[in-house]
Amino acid sequence: MNFRQRLKNKDGQLRLRLILLSLAVLPLLLAMATVVWNVGALAQHQEEAMIDAVKPVVLKARKDELEHFVQAGRKVIAHFCAKAQNDPKARDEGRELLRRMDFGQKADDNYFFLYELDGTNVMHPRLPQLEGTSLWDKQDESGKFLIRELIQQARDGGGFVEYIWPRPSTHQNELKLGYAQLVPECNWMIGTGLYMDHLREAENVIKNRTEQEVKGTRDKIVLIALAALFLVAAGGLAVNLNEQRTANGKLRAMAQKVVQSQELERTRVARELHDGVSQSLASVKYIFESADIQLDREKTGPASAALKQGIVQIIDVMIDVRRISHDLYPTILDDEGLGTALEQLGREFTSRSAIPVLVTVEAGPRIQKEAAKALYRFAQQALGNIESHAMAKQVTLSMRHSKGIVLRIEDDGVGFDVAAVLDQRREGLGLTNMRERIEMLGGGFYVHSRPGTTVLQAYLPTESIKAD
Questions:
Q1: Which residues belong to CATH 3.30.450.20 in the chain?
Q2: HSE (CB half, 13 Å, CA atoms) of 442?
Q3: pTM of the full predicted structure?
Q4: CATH of domain 10-327
Q5: Alpha helices, H only, 325-430
Q6: What percent of the chain has pLDDT over 70?
Q7: CA angle at residue 402 from 398 to 406, to 5 degrees?
């Protein structure tokens, strides 16, 4: 065989090798690209389904919280308006007290407002220049007559209005959910609102967690693909070495082995994807598809069992949402009572902070909801302060009945300057809000602190806790 013939045979063998390599690599790359695309599409569907499931929960919690705050504020202002029949200054005192009341972690953005029923602003703690001005024709960016709608909702027994309003802390116009009620004792409308941070934060948490999961899945797929390509390349190299030492028959045999190796590798990759990532993702996909079908049929009916099963499977993603809701009102307070709720609060605090809490609850009659909520929030705020600032090693929480209820929380932390913290109001540890919440119900508030011992105590008399 001359040189030209040998060169021709070598060129033919090289082309054959390239064809075999292409037949092995291109389908694998195409399969991997398809899997990656399907994972992304499924993750997008999962993300949208989770957001749709979380939205009503978060919104319901925000509405319950708003209604609770407005009811508390209405009781305060109604009390002073009733006193105004004998004391003309009482109405102004109530208005000024309400001006100082704020709530939540972003207290600058959470405040109460008062309006006459003709739209005249009576009190606005963040925009005092509006006081005495009629905002009956005030419209937000969308053209909504927001003060009219708030007053109308108040006249109808209380209701919610979504509108655009400047955020005090940023001076940016943002979506706000407001709630208003009528104060017939003064013929005023009282209201407050919450910016929709929690909903956006919940969506961002879900999106970020989903993106992380998708990125992790794609990285695994890429690693599997690289391993497969490495094996294919190794097989190709083996084929080349064998082709140099064997005849055309051996080349055909080796080509067959390459194809078999390719099929085995595809099977292995498919099995790993099916038994691992795809199995989990497909399970969630089918659950949400089932839930979508059932919800389409039932329209306004309760969430289906399939949706609940899906929520259980994506519990890892939901663990950060649960943390936004950590401060929401627990249903156990209504179902089991204040004592059981305090015991659970202590367990959750210990689990979260590793600081042991000794909870002692004296059995007694059930108390009214407002008193139970006030005491629970008192304990929740106190434990939050201990976790953030006290550096304590031991906490005791006790509740006893003595002509009412006495709730006492003590820790062995570093202590603080009580007078200085109380003067800080918004910047402090929330002691002012805790005191006002208890005193609003006719109770008493006591705080003592020094290095090694801090005691917070709330007292509500019998008439404040007696259930209807």
A1: 10-327
A2: 12
A3: 0.39
A4: 3.30.450.20
A5: 332-335, 338-353, 369-385, 418-424
A6: 66
A7: 35
Q: Which of 278, 207, 273, 189 is nearest to 46 (CA)?
A: 207
Match 């002073």 to its residue by tokens: 80
**Residue (of 208, 214, 211) closest to 39 by Cα position:** 214
157, 55 Cβ separation under 8 angstroms: no
Architecture of domain 329-465: 2-Layer Sandwich (3.30)
Q: What are 114's strand-pairing partners?
A: 123, 190
Tokens of 395: 């906490």
**3-state class percentages of the chain: helix first, strand second, coil last, to nearest 5:** 60, 15, 20
Q: Centre a 10 Å sphere on the Cβ of residue 288 and count the other Cβ atoms it contains.
A: 26
* Per-residue pLDDT tens over the stretch 350-398: 998 999 999 999 888 878 888 888 898 899 889 989 998 889 999 999 9
Phi, psi of 8, deg, nearest 5:
-65, -45
CA angle 150, 156, 158 (to 5 degrees): 60
Compute, in degrees rounded to 10, the torsion defined by CA atoms 342, 348, 349, 354.
140
